[in-house]
Design brief:
Arginine/ornithine transport system ATPase; 3 helices
């Protein structure tokens, strides 16, 4: 059951065009040390919650 939930959540998250574009930008910001990985994760999760 939990595996199915996790797979569906990953599909919804990574399949979202909005998330894909934001993830790319956030990854660049993390690598460039402009934002911490924790802040980047919080930001992308907030974005995901808003579009769902």
């Amino acid at each position: 059951m939990y595996n199915n939930i996790n797979e569906e959540l990953k599909h919804l998250f990574y399949g979202s065009p909005e998330i894909k574009s934001k993830l790319s930008a956030l990854e660049h910001d993390v690598v460039s040390s402009h934002i911490s990985p924790v802040k980047a994760a919080q930001s992308i999760m907030e974005s995901f919650k808003k579009i769902r």
